[in-house]
Every structure is written in structure tokens, then in C-alpha cells.
Amino acid sequence: MKVITLGGESEMSDAQPELLKIGQVSSQSQLPVKTIRFYEERGLIQTAKRTSGGFRLFESSVLPRLSFIRQSQALGLSLNDIQDILGIADSGKRPCQNVRHKFQEKVLEIDARIQQLQELKRQLQILIQEADQREKLNADYCPIIEHAND
């Protein structure tokens, strides 16, 4: 293929995407190499190929995917959830309905956890109020804990 440049004609092979070594992906994504390998093992990302020495090479398109994975985790999605979402996207569909459903489930989980934490807080406040009385009881370690259900 001939390409016209400002300095004249030059020969150029078919353009191939730039491949990045795992260290470059790590640096650009700000994720540890170990995490990138783990994501590859889980099938969340794929290598484009390996060098003759076995080093992983990735297309630059892996960077937005890693960013998506990181953002999804920050929003509370599990790797299984993310894998489902990426699978839908990889099939050519938009996973927005699936994401909405997962977020609705997450909100219900958070509400349940908040209730559990409020109950734990109430129990701890009772124990704090009754600590002086409980300290007088016999115990191997700490009567406040060992007699908490009395």
C-alpha cells in the first residue's frame, strides 16, 4: 500500500492495531498486573495474542473495558454481574435493562443491610448502657460479650 505523506510517497503495510504489553496496560489503566491477569482468567478481557516468549499482548480497546469493569465494581457490582453485562454487550446488544435490574437488586440488598446495621447498633447501645452491670458477671474473657444474650 502506498501512502502519500508531506515528504512524498512511502510504503506502509496494512494498518494493524497497536498491541500493548501487560505492563503498558497496567500503567495506562492504573490496575495491577495481577488484577489484569485475573480478569483475563475470568474471561472479562482477552489478549489479542502472545509473543513467542509467552507475554500477553492486548489491543488498546481493552483500556475502556477495564475502565468499565473498575467503574462497575465501584458501583457495587460483582465480577459475575459484570461478566453478564459484558457478555450482553459483546453479543451486540445494550445491557442497560440488565444493569437497571442489577441496580434494583443492589438497592434492595443495601436496604436489608441498613436494617441489619441499625439492629446491630441498637444491640450495641444496649450493651454499652448495661456494661457496668455485666462486668460483674463471671466470664472467661469479657462478660459484656459473653453475657450479651442474657
Biggest sheet layout: 3 strands, antiparallel
Number of domains: 2
> Architecture of the largest domain, according to CATH?
Orthogonal Bundle
Q: What count of helical segments does DSSP give?
A: 7
Estimate percent helicity: 55-70%
**What is the 3D shape?**
elongated
Structure commentary:
- With 150 residues, this protein is mainly alpha-helical.
- It has two domains: 19-93, Multidrug-efflux Transporter Regulator, Chain: A, Domain 2; 95-150.
- The chain is built from seven helices and five strands.
- The chain has helices at residues 22-29, 33-42, 62-74, 79-90, 96-129, 131-134, 143-146; strands at residues 2-5, 8-11, 19-21, 49-50, 56-59.
- The strands form two sheets. Strands 3-5-4 form a three-stranded antiparallel β-sheet. It has a two-stranded antiparallel ribbon with strand order 1-2.
- The longest helix has 34 residues, at 96-129.
- The chain is elongated.
- The relative contact order is 0.07.
- The model is unreliable at 1-10 (pLDDT under 50).
Give a short summary of the structure.
The chain is mainly α and 150 residues long. It is 57% helix and 11% strand.
Describe how the helices and strands are arranged:
Layout: E1 2-5, E2 8-11, E3 19-21, H1 22-29, H2 33-42, E4 49-50, E5 56-59, H3 62-74, H4 79-90, H5 96-129, H6 131-134, H7 143-146
Antiparallel strand pairs: 1-2, 3-5, 4-5
